[in-house]
Design brief:
The chain is 6% helix and 41% strand. By secondary structure, it is mostly beta strands.
Length: 372
């Protein structure tokens, strides 16, 4: 199988790179097997859900939420939020009001706050992109979403470059990736919230320790950032769509300038922060990003695969693709229960070649790498 062949090559290459007890994440303690052992997918995938329409985001609900054990999935064009129960049942729990899909816009990222009681959504409305939150309630096994409350609005929208990922960081703050909405000049303009990664309180206010006083801007110089994830030590990383040359995987620094539109990919100078890893745009189109046991996993749309990314403490990274062409376009990835990885296909969004059961949520087992 393709997965087995990739595991053999990856085990030899990456273990060689990690020889001499080089950490796979900045500051990683290799004596802690819970975080130090890089992982790879193994075996065949298990289909958990089918028939999804242009799905965009996987949100696994925490144990202290009303829907403990369930997973929510957003659909971009229908504005539907679907619940996958622990028993494998699929049910619609709500249609988000005010969503106006078009191009790459619609109902995009989902997140849940630390209380486990409020779901947040990044969406495209009639006049802008915005973030809303809704109380999550349950009645038996059924979940429901309450009335939407605007957390942040006024983000410029367009037919493309809408960004759209949101997630709560280990600091309890809400982070959002916002594209330049088709105007590259916004990315270098710190007074604009487009072309940025934003950091805000759960209510949408500016944290006192943000790098630009009074501003939600956390980092800038981004074209169309999407996936965000943190390693075991609270360090933020993000994936970003390039234009014609390079897609990027970046280590995000507070106040950092990532170069767009002056630089695409590695610039090699001191003015902008270079990516840790870059791909030709035909090979990636990176969307979702997650972190599991010392390993980042990145969902590639045009590249039609999932990349396992291994970050080293010397500021470099290596990536290996999995399942190339097996599932078509991959929109999101998330940790599944136990040692598993979930991936969400995206073949029904108008750019893919959907099969009879698309789109799907698929689970793969993860195991530690074995040399050979």
């Amino acid at each position: 199988m393709a997965g087995t062949r990739a595991s053999i090559v990856l085990g030899t290459a990456v273990l060689a790179l990690l020889a001499g007890c080089t950490p796979v994440s900045p500051g990683l303690n290799l004596e802690d097997p819970a975080t130090s052992e890089p992982v790879t997918p193994e075996g065949d995938g298990t289909v958990l859900a089918t028939g999804l329409e242009a799905p965009w985001s996987i949100l696994r609900l925490p144990d202290d939420s009303p829907g403990a054990g369930s997973t929510l999935i957003s659909e971009r064009d229908t504005a539907v939020v679907t619940q996958l129960t622990p028993e494998g049942d699929i049910r619609e729990i709500g249609i988000i009001a005010g969503v106006q899909p078009g191009g790459e816009g619609g109902l995009l990222g989902l997140a849940i706050d630390d209380s486990g009681e409020n779901v947040y959504a990044y969406l495209t409305a009639a006049s802008d992109n915005r973030i809303v939150r809704m109380p999550l309630t349950s009645s038996g096994d059924s979940l429901a979403l309450g009335t939407e409350e605007v957390v942040l609005d006024g983000l410029a929208k367009a037919g493309n470059h809408d960004g759209g990922r949101i997630a709560f960081g280990p600091d309890g703050m809400l982070y959002a990736t916002v594209g330049d909405a088709g105007d590259p000049s916004r990315a270098q303009d710190v007074s604009s919230l487009n072309g940025k990664i934003l950091r805000m309180t759960p209510d949408g206010a500016v944290p006192d320790d943000n790098p630009f006083p009074g501003s939600l801007v956390y980092s800038y110089g981004h074209r169309n950032p999407q996936g965000i994830a943190w390693d075991d030590f609270g360090q933020l990383y993000a994936a970003e769509f390039g234009q014609n040359t390079w897609d990027e995987f970046n280590r995000i620094e507070a106040g950092g300038n990532y170069g767009w539109p002056e630089v695409e990919g590695e610039g090699g100078g001191d003015e902008f922060i270079d990516p840790l890893y870059q791909w030709a745009t035909d090979d990636a189109s990176p969307s979702g990003l997650t972190y599991v046991r010392g390993t980042f996993f990145l969902a590639a749309l045009k590249g039609e695969q999932v990349y396992a990314i291994y970050v080293r403490d010397n500021g470099t990274a290596d990536a290996v693709g999995w399942f190339p062409g097996e599932h078509g376009r991959i929109r999101d990835v998330a940790p599944g229960p136990g040692d598993t990885l979930w991936l969400l296909t995206n073949n029904t969004d108008g750019r893919g070649d959907p099969g009879p059961d698309d789109d799907q949520l698929i689970q793969y087992s993860l195991s530690g790498m074995v040399e050979g």
